[in-house]
Amino acid sequence: MRRIAILGGGVGGTMVANRLARELRSDIDRGDVEVVLIGEDANHTYQPGFLYVAFNQAPLERFVRPQTSLLVYGVRFLQMRALRIDADNNSLLFENGDLLTYDYLVIATGSHPTMDTVAGLKEGAYSFYTADQAIRLRDALANIASGRIVIGVDVPHKCPVAVLEFTLMLDEYLRKRGTRDQFEIIYTYPIGRLHSLIPVANWVEPEFERRGIQSEFFFNVDNVDPDKKIIESLEGSSYAYDLLVMVPAHRGAKVIIDSGIGDESGFVPTDRYSLRMKGSHNVFVIGDATDLPISKAGSTAHYEADTIVTNLIDELHGLPADHQYDGKVYCFIEGGLEKATYIAFSYTEPPKPTAPSELLHWFKLMYNEIYWLSVRGLL
Question: For the domain 2-110+253-329, what is the CATH code?
Answer without folding.
Answer: 3.50.50.60
